[in-house]
Specification:
Number of strands of chain A: 31
Strand content of chain B: 25-35%
Strand order of the largest sheet of chain B: 5-6-7-8
Structural class of chain A: alpha/beta
Helix content of chain A: 25-40%
CATH class of the largest domain in chain A: Alpha Beta
Largest interface: A-B, 37 and 42 residues
Distance between the termini of chain A: 35 Å
CATH topology of the largest domain in chain A: Rossmann fold
Radius of gyration of chain B: 15 Å
Strand order of the largest sheet of chain A: 6-5-19-18-17-7-8
Number of strands of chain B: 10
CATH topology of chain B: Rieske Iron-sulfur Protein
Number of helices of chain B: 0
Helix content of chain B: under 10%
Largest sheet of chain B: 4 strands, antiparallel
Radius of gyration of chain A: 26 Å
Strand content of chain A: 15-25%
CATH class of chain B: Mainly Beta
Number of domains of chain B: 1
CATH architecture of the largest domain in chain A: 3-Layer(aba) Sandwich
CATH architecture of chain B: 3-layer Sandwich
Distance between the termini of chain B: 8 Å
Number of helices of chain A: 27
Order of helices and strands of chain B: EEEEEEEEEE
Shape of chain A: globular
Oligomer: heterodimer
Number of domains of chain A: 5
């Protein structure tokens, strides 16, 4: 129980893009407050009369090191929050944030604490000075001798605006390397290109739009599982009818049907046909938003004059779009039913529902995530954008199209990606380069991986691991002493091998190949800024000490940059980086320059001004009006769009190309589709959750959802140990390889026959290993089709680890 | 049975020194022979206002008592944010839930473990013992939401006299 004089700081949850607000109380050991409201900093009297909000539960408390001494730490949802998690709601993930903090006597005690150099195969502690010398000197050799493209980075996308600015300043502005990839793809660039080419921003909506909508059209994500508090407080609370598009009958599917909505249980990869058929239904009957289209959708002439090649290439006027819909035979109701598995009558019902059937268009919001765009990246995002443009679903309360988000948005960089240096192109136009292919071709002599498990996160996972073995271990010398490290690593580079540096908080599979390991500071141990999926920017405050010699990422990058002789990396305080980052944000969705301008005018630090906004934060773009800062609730309210003409447009979603890919990727013989998912209780590659007892108790092993008919036919029951194998995985070079992983069977009707579903990043069980990794199959943007793996199922025994529950999870 | 001085509806300091009895009371809840499979028996424990239930699951369960190890008892208070799960017993799957507030569902076969939902604590189990045909509540397996020590009912301390 925190005493009245406990230190209180605000922060947000580390995990999902809803980013609930939290208050953190720290106080010395042995000085607890009392149970009455006047005795404790929570201002609550205990016992509470239930269900009053604000009770800390045991997993909200820990003991950690604060300013050098052990202290109590209590991380509670902010009951005073007036945004996001109003009144202090929280999910299972945020409800135990305290369990992620470092302590020597608990499961988090294997944090990386010191720089480590692999000497004779074993990681040995070294000084920071030697560590950054190694990085700087090897890097300089690589850049000077082989050029910037030989120097690569594979890094988290959203480790805070400050860190990403420091990282990209080195990679893009100082070194000028296009060999740069985020954690989730082999190339930088647009994850939702079809939506962008329609002229619409990926995060234009606000949470309030979920409440204002009459209909929520949700595709490729279960928001109860993965955007939990947004589902509870904003979607469910608003009472909209939910049209839920997913091959699986998940919790939200069942909820949607219970509440009078619909589950469109489409065959995987057929979104373009489904949305095409819905759009055709609407257009055939003249039910589109004709005012919006005539006022705000570009003509073919305007599209042809656009400076962006992709918009010129794929943009369509309404006339062109209509013509395509009516000409494409797969978009008839009968054909769409056969292709998608969604009955024609249901498709018609959806067309009526979304358009209002002629009685006025309702407020429809289209919300989507990776089930949509990690199948067919360009075409699916184009197809759903087309529905939104058709119905004017943009820029008004309850009328929106938006990503729901996977991560929080902390990725402001410097810009300046050297696109001209990319070796990759589409129809003569440069596109961001596929760095995984480039690495496997032997071109990347130095790779700096930051905050990601490169192997597990990639499609064709085993190819990445094999490449690391070949280029890091089996080519050129290994380090045999600290004094010879630099010369040996340079000799490796000159022999055509790769030097791998891994900057992380915990070891993972990629660390097993690293020559050098750099310990990073984590959430709670540093001040940083990040926004949530409604562009709400907050300061995440530091409240505990980083363990050992761990440093914030920007400090490491800056020291290396200075040693390489670059100027502009002299920050002494992370706030200086925040203020510099604001300049790069100007004019973008993330624009927070006005906040920093005002801070500087008022003589305060930018971080401190942002901190004063607590868990409320302020939505970007931020403007200064009459000396006061104003956030932006939603984008496109003036119905102006991200194009030269200022208008939106339709986008060509090539169904025949998609159909060909489905045929090429699809299971044959006794194979099934092997797709993957997140679950509510876990976060990503479990870097925290494998160390959280309640999470690992629930999920002690990776599981495979399998339909009862598929299970019975193979003699499989829940709790059986299975192998998933594929002999037809295409690696990044287009070569056919074999791969597989082990899972525990979870028999459930959540998945249809012919499709199994596993957790996407369970340590040691590589779901992505059976996903083909040849991005030439999707030539417009280099993105992996993570959802479209395939494989055979073999029962190999019975899970004999800790007991696992196999009860259904889609009961409403 | 109430511990003297403990009242779930009043905000008072629960100082063990003030009370005649310390620890969880033993309370007879039901007769084994009266239990109908799948029909919860509601009761308050350890004090009035803290709602619990007993049920014969029909399947052997962790911590289950009775000849078939299928009699279990739990608090109705959701460990997420304190909503009542009364009325949400699911006999088909031996679950309690989904909670009407945030849809947490607990397994009654597996010690109240979370199947799906937002709680980071297992559902609080009521410890049971059998005396002949009597099913007796003897303690709680964890701290209830919003409580400090379950109204002086710290099951690390010996049970008080009836």
């Amino acid at each position: 129980m925190p005493p009245l004089d406990a230190t209180v700081k605000t922060t947000c949850c580390e995990y999902c893009p809803v980013a609930c607000g939290y208050k953190v109380y720290t106080w010395p050991i042995g000085s607890d407050g009392g149970p009455r409201a006047h005795q404790n900093a929570l201002s609550r009297s205990f016992p509470l009369i239930k269900p009053e909000l604000g009770a800390p539960t045991p997993n909200m408390h820990t003991v950690a090191t604060v300013d050098g001494a052990p202290a109590n730490v209590l991380i509670v949802p902010d009951v005073d929050a007036d945004v996001v998690n109003v009144g202090g709601t929280h999910s299972v993930r945020g409800g135990a944030l305290a369990k992620k903090l470092y302590r020597e006597d608990g499961p988090t005690n294997d944090r990386l604490l010191r720089p480590l150099l692999r000497v004779n195969g074993v990681l040995e502690p070294i000084s920071w000075d030697l560590a950054t010398d190694i990085v700087a000197q090897v890097s300089s050799h690589v850049v000077d001798t082989y050029g910037p493209l030989a120097w690569g980075m594979k890094r988290y996308s959203y480790g805070g605006h400050e860190n990403v600015t420091a990282i990209t300043k080195l990679a893009f502005q100082a070194i000028g390397s296009a060999n740069h990839a985020p954690h989730h793809a082999p190339a930088v660039g647009d994850d939702v290109p079809g939506l962008s080419d329609a002229g619409i921003d990926a995060f234009s909506a606000c949470f309030e739009d979920d409440r204002r909508a009459d209909i929520l059209f949700i595709s490729g994500t279960d928001p109860y599982e993965t955007k939990t508090v947004r589902f509870l407080e904003w979607m469910a609370a608003g009472g909209a009818k939910i049209v839920y598009v997913d091959p699986r009958r998940t919790f939200t599917a069942a909820y949607a049907e219970r509440e009078g909505g619909m589950h469109l249980q489409l065959n995987i990869g057929t979104d373009v046909a489904l949305y095409g058929a819905i759009a055709r239904y609407i257009v055939e009957r003249g039910l589109e938003d004709s005012d919006f289209i005539s006022d705000h959708v570009a003509t073919s002439g305007e599209i042809a004059a656009e400076s962006k090649w992709r918009r010129r290439r794929f943009g369509l006027s309404f006339a062109e779009f209509s013509a395509y819909l009516l000409a494409e035979p797969s978009f008839t109701m009968a054909a769409a039913e056969t292709i998608t598995g969604v009955p024609a009558a249901t498709i018609a019902e959806v067309g009526e529902l979304l358009s209002g059937g002629g009685g006025g268009i309702p407020r429809v919001s289209f919300l989507f995530e990776k089930g949509l765009y990690w199948t067919h990246n360009y075409e699916n995002t184009a197809a759903i954008a087309n529905l939104a443009v058709l119905l004017g679903s943009v820029g008004e309360p309850g009328r929106a199209i938006s990503r729901l988000g996977g991560h929080q948005r902390g990725g402001q960089g410097t810009g300046g990606y050297p696109l001209a240096d990319s070796p990759d192109e589409f129809e003569g136009n440069k596109i961001e380069m596929d760095t995984d292919r480039y690495f496997l071709q032997g071109n990347t002599r130095f790779m700096w991986a930051i905050g990601t498990n490169w192997i597990g996160a990639s499609a064709g996972s085993t190819a990445i691991a094999a490449g690391l073995q070949r280029l890091v271990r089996d080519t050129g010398p290994q380090v045999t002493s600290t004094s010879s490290a630099i010369s040996q690593l340079i000799a490796r580079v000159d022999a055509g091998g790769t030097v791998l540096v891994h900057q992380e908080i915990y070891s993972n599979q990629t660390t097993d190949y690293a020559d050098l390991v750099l310990p990073a500071a984590a959430w709670g141990e540093k001040n940083f800024s990040r926004a949530n999926a409604e562009r709400r920017l907050r300061l995440y405050q530091r409240f505990v000490d980083p363990p050992g010699e761990a440093r914030d990422d920007w400090e490491i990058v800056a020291e290396v940059a200075r040693k390489m002789g670059y100027s502009g990396f002299d920050w002494t305080d992370v706030n200086e980086l925040f203020e510099e980052a604001s300049g790069y944000s100007a004019g973008s969705r993330r624009d927070f320059k006005a906040l920093v301008d005002k801070a500087q005018a008022d003589g305060v630090r930018g971080h401190d001004l942002l901190a004063s906004y607590g868990t409320t934060g302020i939505q970007t773009p931020i403007n200064l009006a009459s000396g006061e800062l104003e956030g932006t609730k939603r984008l496109h309210t003036a119905r102006t769009f991200k194009s030269d003409s200022g208008k939106a447009n339709f986008v060509f979603a090539d169904w025949p190309a998609v159909a060909a890919r489905n045929a090429s990727l699809g299971p044959t013989g006794d194979e099934v589709w092997v797709t993957n998912m997140r679950v509510n209780h876990l976060w990503n590659n479990l870097f925290d959750f494998v160390r959280r007892p309640d999470a690992i108790k629930r999920w002690p092993a990776n599981i495979l959802q399998i339909n009862p008919s598929d299970a019975t036919g193979r003699g499989i029951s829940s709790g059986d140990l299975l192998r998933i194998d594929s002999d037809s995985v295409r690696d990044q070079l287009g070569q056919v390889i074999s791969a597989g992983f082990e899972v525990v069977a979870y028999v459930t009707d959540e998945v249809p026959p012919g499709l199994v579903c596993t957790y996407f990043l369970y340590p040691g069980s590589l779901a992505n290993s059976v996903v083909s990794a040849d991005t030439t199959s999707q030539p417009v943007t280099a993105r992996y089709q993570f959802k479209m793996g395939r494989g055979r199922i073999t029962r190999i025994g019975v899970w004999d680890g800790p007991p696992m529950p196999f009860e259904p999870r889609n009961i409403v | 049975m109430l511990l003297v001085g403990c009242d779930s509806k009043k905000q008072i300091d629960c100082n063990p020194d003030d009370f005649e009895e310390i620890g969880c009371p033993d309370v007879e809840i039901a007769k084994l022979s009266d239990l109908v499979e799948g029909v919860p028996v509601d009761f308050d424990y350890p004090v009035e206002g803290l709602e619990c239930f007993l049920v014969k699951l029909g399947d052997a369960a962790e911590g289950g008592v009775g000849p078939n190890q299928d009699v279990v008892a739990f608090s109705y208070i959701c460990t997420h944010m304190g909503c009542s799960l009364k009325g949400n017993y699911n006999h088909d799957h031996k679950l309690l839930g989904p909670c009407r507030c945030h849809f947490t569902t607990f397994s009654l076969r597996r010690n109240g473990g979370v199947i799906l939902g937002q709680a980071t604590q297992d559902l609080v189990r009521v410890e049971l013992s059998i005396d002949g045909d009597n099913v007796i509540a003897t303690g709680l397996s964890g701290v209830l939401y919003g409580e400090i020590d379950n109204r002086c009912c710290n099951d690390a301390q010996p049970a008080g006299n009836a």
